[in-house]
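thread from #wetlab-drylab

HS: before we spend reagent money on co-crystallization trials with MGD, can we at least see a predicted complex? here's what I'd submit
DV: go for it
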Amino acid sequence: MTLKTSSAISKPYSGPAGGWGSAKSVAAIILRERVPLKGPRLLSTQNRPEGYMCVSCAWAKPSQPHPLEFCENGAKATAWEITSRRADPEFFAGKPLSELELWPDHDLEEQGRLTQPLRWDAASDKYVPVAWSEAFEEIGRELRALDPHQVDLYTSGRASLEASYMYQLFARMYGSNNLPDSSNMCHESSSVALPESIGASVGTAILSDFENTDCIFYIAQNVGTSSPRLLHDLQDAVNRGVKIITFNLLRERGLERFVNPQSPVQMLTGKETQISSEYYQVNNGGDIAALFGVCKALIEADDALKASGNGRVAGEDGKPKDPNNAAMVAFAASMASADKKHVLDHDFIKQHTAGFEEFAQAARDHKWSELERVSGLSRDQMMQAAATYAKSDAVMMVYGMGLTQHLMGVQNVHMVCNLALLRGNIGKPGANICAVRGHSNVQGQRTVGITEKPGLAPLDKLSELHGFEPPRWTGRTTVETCEAIMNGQSRAFIGLGGNFLKAVPDTAAMEEGWRELRLSVQIATKLNRSHVLHGEIAYLLPCLGRIELDQQATGPQAVSIESSIAHFHGSRGKARPASTALLSEPAIIAGIAKATLGETKVPWDAWVGNYAEIRNAIERTYPETFKDFNERMFKPGGFARPLPARERKWVTKSGKANFITPAKLFPEFSTSGRADVLHLATLRSNDQFNTTIYGYSDRFRGVEGTRRIIFMNGEDILRLGFADGEIVDVTTAIDDNVARTVTGLKIVPYNIPKGCCGAYYPETNPLFPLAHHDPKSKTPSYKLLPVRLSRSHLTPVG
Ligand SMILES: Nc1nc2c(c(=O)[nH]1)N[C@H]1C(S)=C(S)[C@@H](COP(=O)(O)OP(=O)(O)OC[C@H]3O[C@@H](n4cnc5c(=O)[nH]c(N)nc54)[C@H](O)[C@@H]3O)O[C@H]1N2
Ligand SMILES: Nc1nc2c(c(=O)[nH]1)N[C@H]1C(S)=C(S)[C@@H](COP(=O)(O)OP(=O)(O)OC[C@H]3O[C@@H](n4cnc5c(=O)[nH]c(N)nc54)[C@H](O)[C@@H]3O)O[C@H]1N2
Ligand SMILES: [Mo]
């Protein structure tokens, strides 16, 4: 369905992803950040061995990089970090925080890089410069006065392996396992589900799988915006004839058509690659039903083959399911293996898995009508996807936030694994699970111990190596930290990056709690709202970015990161630091650690002087994963983390890969009177990196000049009595006696399934109740919230 829109802010974008639109957008931001010469020069070293690893997304860095291994959004992130703009003491001298509180985040970050350590001065309500030593001393004193249970040490996914290892070590030596991180809002559903299903905490796919695959299920990830370099791998696959089956709430441009900005031929001829061969627009939250439909088609086709006497003996009950279903037999025969005997990989299922029968029975029991209603897809569509899947020998499963940020996020991921297991699509070339990670080192932080779960950190080893007794209690996840901030249990928050207040749910209640903190310490590169609101004692500590030269006692230092495909890479910053007063993240962590802990066995200064020593400690802590870390860190293409599931060794309780049957198709929540309720999914524009808003343009979705919009289905607009372009207020429709409203969003008619709507994150975060999260992974359900709309008396703001 295509919809016409009269709205001035929204014109359907007719171009492909990439292409000249992308090139123009990169040029514009390089000029805006006033880095015209240094920008392009630096970009040519991005994601290359001996260069720096992009600070944007976590996508793989190939061993043979493209001539310029960067994308539009990586270029924007680079320009954003090396900007020549400065938020210096002069800026802060003129601005009390009560004034900065009224600024939008875009304007706060647009001030440029922080240059000096700052302390909030109560008398003037301003951030004023402070000496590093003084800052560390007071932070240490305050932390010593608190019970470690009252302190939360948050990490956003950008900090290097070196900084992350030091940070978790400091937290534990101090006595706290409260190590919430951005992953708790992001891929936590994967971190919980994948170990249960296949005994791996991360995806199992590597780059060569894209070269060997026949078919890719591409689920709930917006490649054109969130990880554009992955489009190269998809494009190469498509050119080899690989089928890409997409399941997404929206028709995302990057999943439809792509012009490779790196290809002169494509750029000059405008020749586009069609990415998805099948595009299924599911309801938000409809993926369990959709994937069950695909599994049901496969399982019943397999049953039909058996029943037709063509294949193996019948199922366990000895009775074939539907012996007279000629249509199903024909369908099955059309996609069966060469010997026409089976659709499922029974040898794999028998040898490698547990729980198949229960899962297969659940699939048979689900009624097509119910699967159709919940998923929003037709039976034919689900059968078509099944047929393509069954005809492919090696199939990959790629997915993102549209699956994980749900009340049933863990079960969404189980379902992806179930589908893969039916035909042995894990642990063979061209197959595997690819969880597309967000931040550039979010996966790696977990690998080196950032976790609130004591069972996931090598506590005994840390104790033995560093001579201390680590706390054994379970710390707080991000949602639990929010709770503790709201109810006063948390007294101090230390943020290693991020814009916590804007990224989490329940903004209003959080801001109130945040102001009651005794201590807030933010280690950051740019100013954001989580700094402007603050505790009784507040520090803003500016750090080097990854692109900058990190000069220490033994010379320039390198750091390392882990990509989405579990490969480790060294990264060398070369740009001149934004200010001579900046310290690196390892140096800041060491400063706080020394001031808080006094004498310890850890040689903090020697580590800061030479990061190779930190890597040695990481290697001693995780000898298998980080074997010869320093020697291998600049290996082209990175070095791989051992993943037993890739070798079909299943480190699960059953010793097998587990089919895990979701308890229901769709989550339950308490909403009264559903007729006027829509299901909201929050989205990223093409002009933002999380809460960092580069600009007010979402080129691929045709939105310009504002982010205060709500995407709606045309029929819903009419049914609910609204008009295209009308301004509405949006209210949360969860019955918990708290009123949550975001005012002044403009209706944009959009190709989105009926009953669903979309709006931008973080503008709509005030709508999300903290309790509206997956109970297993505690991941907020940012992709499904019941809301109601009402006519607004506001005029829209930009
Ligand atoms: N440019 C840019 N790049 C980024 C980021 C950024 O903000 N900007 N953020 C980084 C981070 S931290 C992360 S985690 C990743 C996020 O990258 P993604 O995983 O792509 O996450 P989102 O952009 O939030 O949206 C995911 C997609 O899910 C779809 N969707 C929503 N709900 C559903 C559903 O229920 N089912 C299905 N099938 N689809 C659904 C949406 O239409 C959208 O296309 O990107 C990283 N890279
Ligand atoms: N409604 C809704 N909410 C969401 C999401 C959603 O899809 N919908 N997505 C969630 C997800 S997936 C994520 S990951 C979170 C992330 O949300 P954010 O907290 O926004 O993540 P960041 O991009 O890390 O935070 C940006 C800030 O990090 C600081 N920074 C940048 N570079 C560095 C550096 O090198 N070092 C340090 N110390 N600081 C730096 C800058 O000061 C910048 O202001 O938001 C979550 N919130
Ligand atoms: Mo993320």
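DV: The chain has 33 helices and 33 strands.
HS: ok that's useful, forwarding to the group
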